[in-house]
Write a structure and sequence with these properties.
Helix content: 40-55%
Distance between the termini: 67 Å
CATH topology of the largest domain: TIM Barrel
Organism: Thiocapsa roseopersicina
Radius of gyration: 54 Å
InterPro entries: Biofilm_reg_signaling, EAL_dom, EAL_sf, GAF, GAF-like_dom_sf, GGDEF_dom, Nucleotide_cyclase, PAC
Protein name: PAS domain S-box-containing protein/diguanylate cyclase (GGDEF) domain-containing protein
CATH architecture of the largest domain: Alpha-Beta Barrel
Structural class: alpha+beta
Largest sheet: 8 strands, mixed, barrel
Pfam family, one: GAF
Number of strands: 47
Strand content: 25-35%
Length: 1325
C-alpha cells in the first residue's frame, strides 16, 4: 500500500534542510522533538534521507572521476611543459625563478635567482613592469625584449606572463612563455636594410614627403598635381585629394596680394627663380591666414624630358611671428642705452657676459667674451686709475653696491660718459662667483651739465673781463690786457693766448700781447709784421670777419700751406682766432693755441670769445683815444684857455642870422674843413645833419642874453663821416648894441665817448637778454640790478626788488650755516658755485645753480657781487622723481624690492644686536586675476591700493610693508619676541580683508595666502630670508586659499622636487611621453557602456607609468597645462577616429579642462579646429570643468562654455558639491551634466560618522539634477553598497573601480565591442 504525501513547496524545503542537518551534524535530537510534537512526518523524512544520500554518492563518484581526469591532465601538462619546443619559465609571486623547461635551459643561463636579472642592462625595467602587470591584470605581454643567452649571447624574445590561480591558499605563480625572435629580428633587420638599399632612390622622396612637416607635391607639365603629401591637410585644412582633384585650389587660397608673385615664380620666364625660396600667405579651410615658405625645382626624365616640377611648402607662420617679435625686441634692446655685464673677479675685469646691445659701443660680443678685450680696456685711460682705486675700496670695505661715473671709449674712438652700478654674485657656499654690473650711457646728461657749467663760466669770464676793462686807464691797460689773456687761456684750456693788431694799411699784423702757459715758448718777438699777403688763406677769413677754428693743424687744406708750415714750426696743434672789430671794421684778432694736445672749441666758446675780443678792442681803442685826447688837450692848453676842441664866437646880424666872428684852427681837425671854408658858410650850423638843426635853433641860436646851455649835436665832416660833439654856449648882449646877441662857445668831439656808451649799452643788453639769471648787489647785499630772466623766474618787477636786501630771496630751507658759508667765501674774494633754493614773490621756491663772483674796482677792492644762475628746478624734480621710482612702487606708494632689501638688511643688523626675532611675510592675493578678468585692470589697480591701505596700519612705524610685483607684497615685522607673534600678524592681515572692498559700484571680497620666514631660525641674510618666505608662500598656496605657512626645509625640498618635475615634464612633452587611459561610464542597472573618461598618464622611460596626481598640479602651476591640454584633446580625437575606423561602436569621451585653459582666449576655436582636423564630431566629445574653475569668473565662464555648447560639445560640471557655486550661478552655466564628487560616495557604506551627511548630500544633488533637467553621474563607485544606494535613489549612471579601472585604449576596445560591463568583473588595470 502506497502512502501519498501532499506537501507544499515550503514544507518540502524545510524537510530537506532537516535531512541535511541530520547527515551533517549526526544528531537527531531536534528531529525527534519535532516528531514527538507531531510537526514532522518521519516516513517522509526517511525517504528524503535516502534520496539525499543517493545524491551524495553520485557526487562522490563524479568527484573521483574528475580527480582521475585532473591527474591525467596534470601529467600530460607536465610532460608537455617540460618537452615544449619553446622556453617556459615558472616564477613565484616575489619574482624568483622557480624552474624552466628544457628549452629554457638550453636558451638562457640560470645563474641568477630573480627573473628580472635575465634582462640585459637597460631592459630590467621592462621585466619589472611586466611582473607588476601580470600580478594586477592576470597577464602581460612584452615584445622583443633583449635577454642574456647562453655563452654571453644576446637573445631577443617575445614574452607572455600569465598569473596562475591560487590553490588551497598557496601563493600565486606566474608562467612566462618565451618565443625566441632573435633570428627573426635579425632577418627582419637585414631584410629592411636590403629593401631600403634596393628602393632608396625610388621611395626617398615619398617617404620624406609623407612624414615630413613640409607639404610636398609633384606637379606635372599640364599643371595638375601628380602627388600631394598628407601634410597639406595639417597646414591648409584641405586633404590631399582636394588638390589632386582641383589643380587651381592652391592658387585660389593664396592671398590676393601674393598670388601674382607666386604665379610669376611658378610660370615666369626666369626658370632660375624656382631654385630660390619665396614666401606667400594663404587662407586655410577655416579662414585662418598662414605664412608659407615655398621652394620648387624642375623634374626631368630620360634625355632631359621635362616632367613638371616638385616643390615643398613649409608653414612658417610661427617663424614669421617670432622674426617680427625678435626684430622688435632687437630694436628695443639696440635702442637701450643700458648694458648688462658680468665680470670675472680677476684683474682687468674680463667679461663673461654682456647684453647684445653692447654692439652700440661698436664692439663685437665675441671680442669681449673671448677675453681678447677686457672691460678695463674700454675705460678711458684718464679715468681708469680712479675707477680701479674706487673698486678696490668697494671690495675692501665689502660694500653692497659699487657706483661710479666715468668715461668709456667706443670702438670708433669716441668718448662717452657712463654710470656703473655693480653688485657681487655669490654661490651657495658664499664664494664670489662674478660681478653683475649695469652700465648706462649718461653722455647727454654729462654734456648738458658740463655745457651749462661751461656757459656759466664763460659768462662769468665775460663779466669779469668787461668789469675790469670798463674802468681801465692808460696806466693800467697793459696789466689788464695781460690779466685778461691769462684768464682766457686758462679758462678755455689753451696753452697760449694773444692779440694781433692790424696795421693802418691793412697789409700786416703785429702781435701786441701774449700769455703762455708753463713750459710754452713765447713767440711775440717772432710774430711782428706778419704779411697778410703771405698768409692769404687766413687773411681772407679775417677780412670776412669769420672766426677761424682749426681742431687739427695737419688737416689744413692745400691752399693754407703757409699757415700750416708756420703753425707746425711753432708746435701748434689746434688754433682758434676771432676778428676784433669796431664800428664794422676789423681792428685785429684774438687767438688761442693748443700745443700739448689737440683741442676743439665749441661754437658757444667761439661766440663768447668774439664778445671778449670786441670788449678788448673797444677798451684798447678807447684808451688810445683818451691818451690822444689828453695829449691834445695838454697841447691845446698852451694855446687857449678854452676847455674844448674848438672855440668860437658868433655875432647875430639882422637878416643873416649868426655869423662866425672868430674860431680856432682846430675846427679843421674836427670837420676836415679849413677855417676859411667854415667862415664862408657863415655859421658852423651848416655842418649839422638835418635831424639836429632843430636842437641847434633851440639850444644855441634861441638863447637869450645871459643864458647858458649844453647840447649834443651831430655834424657831417667833409669826408662824409658823422661826428658827435658837445656844444657849450653862452649868450651875451653886445656892448655897442645891446639889441644884438653874441655867442661864445666851445665844440667838443665826443664821438669816441658816444661809442663807449653804445658799447656799454650793448653789454648791458647782452646781460639783460641773457638766458641766465643775473643779479648785482653791493657789498652789503642790497640789490642794484636784475635782468629780465630774473624777473621772469621770481615774479618780481625791477622796481619791486631794487634796493632791497638779497635775503628777501632766501628760502626757509636754507640754513644759517649755508648762508654764512656763501658770504664767507665772497668776503674772502672767492667765487662761490653751488645750488640753493630761491623764494619767489609768490612765496614758492625754485632751485638755482649759481656762480657768485666778487666785482673789483681799479684799486682791487670788492665793490659789488654778481650772480649768474640757472633755474634747475625741472632737473631737480626729475632727479627726485627718478630717485623715488627707484625705491618706491608708483601704484601703491609702498617701498619696492630695492628699498625693501635695504630695510631687511638694516633690520637684520638691529635684530642681531638686540637678540630679537624678525619675521618676513610674503603675501599673495588669491583673487586678483579674477578681478582683472571680470572688472578690468583699473579695478585691479584700485584693489591693490585698497589692500595696501588696510594692511599698512597693522604694522608698527619701524616695520615695513612693500610691494614686490603684481599681487605679491612683503611685510617686515621687527622686534618680535617669539614666532607666534608672526602667526598672529598673519591672522590680522587675513582678517583685514574680511570686509568687502568697494570697486566702483561693486563690493569685492578677496583672500590672501602668506608665507613666513624667521630670523634667526631660517636665515641670517636678506636674500635667503626673502627666498624662504616665497617658498613658504608657495607651500601655503598649494594647500589651499587663505592660509599661512612657516618655512621649513621640507618645503624647500618640495619646491626643488617640483622644479625637477617641471623640467622633466617639459622634456616629456617634447618626447611624446604622455598617453591616455580610459575609464568607462556605465548604466549601473544594465551594465551598458554609455561613455568614457580620458585620463592622462605619463609614461616615464625610467619611472614607468606616472599617475596624474604627481604631475598635473606642477603643470598647472607652471603653465605647462596649456601644452598638455591640446595634446589630450588631439589624442582623444585620434583614438575616437581609430575606433571608428576599426568598426568599434563609438560612445562620447570626456576630458577635463583646467582653469588656466578655460579662460584662455580662443579656446573653443582651438578645440573645434583639432576635432575638425581629425574628423571627429563635436557630439562625441564631452568637456568637464570643475565647479571651482567655473566659479572663478562666472561671467567669462558662461561666455566660454556657451560658445563650446554652440559648437556642439557636451558640457559637464566635475567634482560637483566641493565648490561654492550658488543655484543661481549653476542655473546660468550652459551644462548638461553634473558629476557627484567621489568624496561623498566614499562615505556611503563605510559606517563612519559622516555617512548620514554624505547620503543626504548625494540625494540632494540627484534631486537638484532632476529638477534642473541635468544628467547626474556618480564618480568613484567602488562597492556594491554604493551602487545599490545610487539605484535606489534614481541615479543610473556612474563610473568607478566597481565596474572597471582605467586602462589603455586596446584593452578598453574589447569592452566597447562587448558593450557591457558587469559590476565586480576582473579589473582592467
Amino acid at each position: 500500500m502506497t502512502t501519498t504525501h501532499q506537501l507544499g513547496f515550503a514544507e518540502m524545503t524545510d524537510l530537506r534542510e532537516r535531512a541535511r542537518r541530520i547527515l551533517r551534524d549526526h544528531t537527531f535530537d531536534e528531529t525527534m522533538d519535532a516528531f514527538e510534537q507531531g510537526n514532522l512526518d518521519l516516513e517522509r523524512l526517511l525517504e528524503e534521507l535516502h534520496i539525499y544520500h543517493a545524491e551524495l554518492y553520485i557526487q562522490q563518484q563524479a568527484l573521483n572521476d574528475s580527480r582521475h581526469i585532473t591527474e591525467r591532465a596534470l601529467a600530460r601538462f607536465t610532460r608537455l611543459y617540460r618537452e615544449l619546443p619553446f622556453p617556459v619559465l615558472l616564477i613565484n609571486a616575489q619574482g624568483h625563478l622557480k624552474e624552466g623547461n628544457a628549452a629554457a635551459q638550453r636558451l638562457l643561463p640560470f645563474d641568477c635567482r630573480l627573473f628580472i636579472h635575465l634582462a640585459v642592462e637597460g631592459q630590467t625595467r621592462v621585466l619589472e613592469n611586466a611582473l607588476l602587470d601580470s600580478r594586477r591584470a592576470g597577464r602581460a605581454d612584452c615584445r622583443e625584449v633583449r635577454l642574456r643567452g647562453q655563452g654571453n649571447s644576446i637573445v631577443t624574445a617575445d614574452l607572455r606572463l600569465i598569473r596562475l590561480p591560487e590553490i588551497d591558499g598557496d601563493e600565486a605563480e606566474i608562467v612566462c612563455n618565451l618565443v625566441d625572435q632573435t633570428e627573426q629580428v635579425a632577418q627582419r633587420e637585414d631584410l629592411v636594410a636590403a629593401n631600403r638599399r634596393l628602393r632608396i632612390q625610388e621611395e626617398r622622396y615619398h617617404v620624406v614627403a609623407d612624414f615630413a612637416p613640409d607639404w610636398a607635391y609633384w606637379m606635372g607639365e599640364d599643371g595638375r598635381f601628380r602627388y600631394v603629401s598628407p601634410a597639406c591637410a595639417r597646414i591648409t585644412g584641405y586633404p590631399a585629394a582636394a588638390f589632386l582633384k582641383d589643380p587651381e585650389l592652391l592658387s585660389r587660397i593664396i592671398h590676393p596680394d601674393d598670388r601674382d608673385g607666386y604665379l610669376m615664380h611658378l610660370h615666369g620666364a626666369h626658370a632660375t627663380h624656382r631654385f630660390k625660396p619665396m614666401r606667400f600667405r594663404l587662407y586655410t579651410r577655416t579662414g585662418e591666414l598662414r605664412w608659407i615658405e615655398h621652394l620648387c625645382v624642375p623634374v626631368t626624365g630620360d634625355g632631359g624630358r621635362p616632367l613638371g616640377h616638385r616643390g615643398s611648402n613649409l608653414d612658417v607662420t610661427e617663424k614669421v611671428r617670432l622674426e617680427t617679435a625678435l626684430g622688435m625686441a632687437s630694436e628695443v634692446i639696440d635702442a637701450s642705452s643700458t648694458i648688462a655685464f658680468h665680470w670675472a673677479p680677476e684683474p682687468g675685469w674680463p667679461v663673461i657676459y654682456a647684453s647684445p646691445n653692447v654692439r652700440r659701443w661698436g664692439y663685437a660680443l665675441e671680442q669681449l667674451l673671448s677675453r681678447r678685450l677686457s672691460y678695463l680696456d674700454v675705460v678711458h685711460p684718464q679715468d681708469c686709475v680712479r675707477v680701479v682705486a674706487a673698486f678696490e675700496t668697494f671690495i675692501q670695505e665689502k660694500r653692497d653696491v659699487f657706483r661710479q661715473t666715468y668715461r668709456v671709449c667706443w670702438a670708433d674712438g669716441s668718448e662717452h660718459w657712463v654710470d656703473e652700478e655693480t653688485r657681487g654674485v655669490f654661490g651657495p657656499d658664499g664664494r664670489l662667483l662674478y660681478f653683475h654690473g649695469i652700465v648706462t650711457d649718461v653722455t647727454e646728461r654729462e654734456q648738458a651739465e658740463r655745457g651749462l657749467k661751461r656757459q656759466l663760466d664763460l659768462q662769468a669770464l665775460v663779466a669779469r673781463i668787461s668789469s675790469r676793462l670798463i674802468d681801465v686807464t692808460g696806466d693800467t691797460l697793459e696789466q689788464t690786457i695781460d690779466w685778461s689773456l691769462e684768464r682766457i687761456g686758462r679758462s678755455l684750456g689753451a696753452d697760449r693766448s694773444y692779440l694781433l693788431r692790424l696795421s693802418n694799411d691793412h697789409k700786416r699784423m703785429d702781435m701786441t700781447h701774449e700769455w703762455c702757459a708753463e713750459d710754452i715758448r713765447a713767440v711775440i718777438d717772432e710774430c711782428q709784421a706778419l704779411s697778410l699777403e703771405h698768409y692769404r688763406w687766413w687773411a681772407e677769413r679775417l677780412a670776412e670777419r669769420d672766426p677761424v677754428l682749426i681742431a687739427d693743424v695737419s688737416a689744413l687744406p692745400a691752399e693754407a700751406t703757409a699757415e700750416r708750415t708756420e703753425l707746425e714750426r711753432q708746435g701748434v696743434r689746434s688754433i682758434v682766432t676771432v676778428p676784433m672789430t669796431r664800428h664794422g671794421r676789423v681792428w685785429g684778432a684774438l687767438g688761442l693755441d693748443a700745443m700739448t694736445r689737440p683741442r676743439s672749441w665749441s661754437n658757444d666758446t667761439v661766440q663768447m670769445l668774439q664778445v671778449i675780443g670786441e670788449v678788448i678792442a673797444g677798451a684798447l681803442l678807447r684808451t688810445e683815444s683818451e691818451v690822444r685826447l689828453t695829449a691834445s688837450e695838454n697841447l691845446y692848453r698852451h694855446v687857449t684857455d678854452m676847455m674844448s676842441d674848438v672855440a668860437y664866437s658868433c655875432v647875430e646880424r639882422p637878416g643873416e642870422g649868426f655869423r662866425i666872428d672868430w674860431m680856432t684852427d682846430s675846427v679843421e681837425a674836427l670837420t676836415r674843413y679849413t677855417l676859411a671854408e667854415v667862415r664862408e658858410m657863415g655859421c658852423w650850423s651848416r655842418l649839422l645833419i638835418d635831424e639836429d638843426v632843430g636842437i641847434f635853433n633851440d639850444k644855441v641860436a634861441g638863447l637869450a642874453p645871459g643864458a647858458r646851455a649844453d647840447c649834443e649835436l651831430r655834424l657831417r665832416r667833409k669826408d662824409g663821416a658823422i661826428r658827435w660833439l658837445r656844444a657849450t654856449t653862452e649868450c651875451v648882449a653886445e656892448d655897442a648894441d645891446p639889441t644884438q646877441r653874441r655867442l661864445y662857445g666851445g665844440l667838443l668831439d665826443i664821438t669816441e665817448h658816444k661809442s663807449r656808451e653804445a658799447e656799454i649799452e650793448r653789454l648791458a643788453l647782452v646781460v639783460e637778454q641773457s638766458p641766465s639769471i643775473v643779479l648785482i648787489t653791493d657789498i652789503a647785499g642790497a640789490i642794484e640790478y636784475v635782468n629780465a630772466r630774473f624777473c621772469e623766474s621770481t615774479g618780481y618787477r625791477p622796481q619791486e626788488i631794487l634796493g632791497r636786501s638779497v635775503d628777501t630771496l632766501r628760502s626757509a630751507t636754507r640754513t644759517a650755516d649755508e648762508n654764512s658759508e656763501i658770504w664767507s667765501a665772497l668776503q674772502r674774494g672767492e667765487v662761490w658755485t653751488g645750488e640753493f633754493q630761491v623764494r619767489k614773490k609768490s612765496g614758492e621756491t625754485y632751485w638755482e645753480y649759481a656762480h657768485i663772483t666778487p666785482l673789483r674796482n681799479e684799486q682791487g677792492l670788492v665793490t659789488h657781487y654778481v650772480k649768474l644762475a640757472e633755474d634747475i628746478s625741472d632737473r631737480k624734480a626729475l632727479s627726485q622723481q627718478v630717485s623715488y621710482l627707484a625705491r618706491y612702487d608708483p601704484l601703491t606708494g609702498l617701498p619696492n624690492r630695492t628699498l625693501m632689501r635695504e630695510r631687511v638688511e638694516q633690520a637684520l643688523i638691529a635684530a642681531s644686536h638686540a637678540d630679537r626675532v624678525l619675521a618676513l611675510l610674503s603675501i599673495d592675493l588669491d583673487d586678483l586675476r579674477s578681478v582683472n578678468d571680470s572688472l578690468g585692470h583699473p579695478a585691479g589697480d584700485e584693489l591693490l591700493r585698497a589692500v595696501a591701505e588696510r594692511w599698512q596700519p597693522l604694522l608698527r612705524d619701524e616695520d615695513t610693508l612693500a610691494r614686490f610685483s603684481g599681487d605679491n607684497f612683503i611685510a617686515l615685522a621687527t622686534g618680535l619676541r617669539r614666532a607666534e607673534d608672526a602667526s598672529r600678524l598673519a591672522d590680522r592681515i587675513r582678517d583685514a580683508l574680511a570686509q568687502p572692498i568697494i570697486l566702483g559700484e561693486q563690493g569685492v571680497v578677496v583672500s590672501c595666502s602668506i608665507g613666513i620666514a624667521l630670523y634667526p631660525d631660517d636665515s641670517s641674510t636678506a636674500e635667503e630670508l626673502i627666498s624662504h618666505a616665497d617658498t613658504a608662500l608657495h607651500g601655503a598656496k598649494i594647500e589651499g586659499r587663505g592660509l599661512h605657512r612657516f618655512f621649513t626645509s621640507a618645503l624647500n625640498d618640495d619646491l626643488q622636487e617640483q622644479f625637477r618635475t617641471e623640467q622633466a615634464l617639459r622634456r616629456a612633452i617634447e618626447r611624446h611621453e604622455l598617453l591616455l587611459y580610459y575609464q568607462p561610464r556605465v548604466d549601473i542597472v544594465t551594465g551598458r557602456i554609455l561613455g568614457l573618461e580620458a585620463l592622462v598618464r605619463w609614461d616615464h622611460p625610467e619611472l614607468g607609468l606616472i599617475p596624474p596626481g604627481r604631475f598635473i598640479p606642477v603643470a598647472e602651476s607652471s603653465g605647462l597645462i596649456l601644452l598638455v591640454g591640446p595634446i589630450v584633446v588631439r589624442l582623444v580625437c585620434e583614438q575616437i577616429a581609430a575606433w571608428r575606423n576599426a568598426g568599434v561602436a563609438l560612445v562620447p569621451v570626456a576630458f577635463n579642462l583646467s582653469a588656466t585653459e578655460l579662460y584662455q582666449e580662443g579656446l573653443a576655436g582651438r578645440i573645434s579646429t583639432i576635432a575638425a582636423e581629425v574628423g571627429v564630431d563635436p557630439d562625441l566629445l564631452e568637456i568637464e570643468v570643475t565647479e571651482s574653475t567655473a566659479m572663478r569668473s562666472i561671467e567669462q565662464a558662461v561666455e566660454v562654455l556657451s560658445e563650446l555648447r554652440d559648437r556642439g560639445f557636451t558640457l559637464a560640471i566635475d567634482d560637483f558639491g566641493t565648490g561654492f557655486a550658488s543655484l543661481s550661478y549653476l542655473n546660468r552655466l550652459p551644462v548638461q551634466t553634473i558629476k557627484i564628487d567621489r568624496s561623498f560616495l566614499a562615505e556611503i557604506g563605510s559606517g563612519g560618522p559622516g555617512e548620514s551627511q554624505a547620503e543626504t548630500i548625494v540625494k540632494a544633488i540627484i534631486g537638484l539634477g532632476a529638477n534642473l533637467g541635468l544628467q547626474v553621474i556618480a564618480e568613484g563607485v567602488e562597492t556594491e553598497a554604493q551602487n545599490t544606494f545610487l539605484i535606489n535613489h534614481g541615479c543610473r549612471e556612474a563610473q568607478g573601480y566597481l565596474f572597471c579601472r582605467p586602462g589603455p585604449a586596446d584593452r578598453i576596445e574589447a569592452l566597447l565591442r562587448g558593450g557591457i560591463v558587469e559590476p565586480g568583473a576582473e579589473p582592467i588595470d
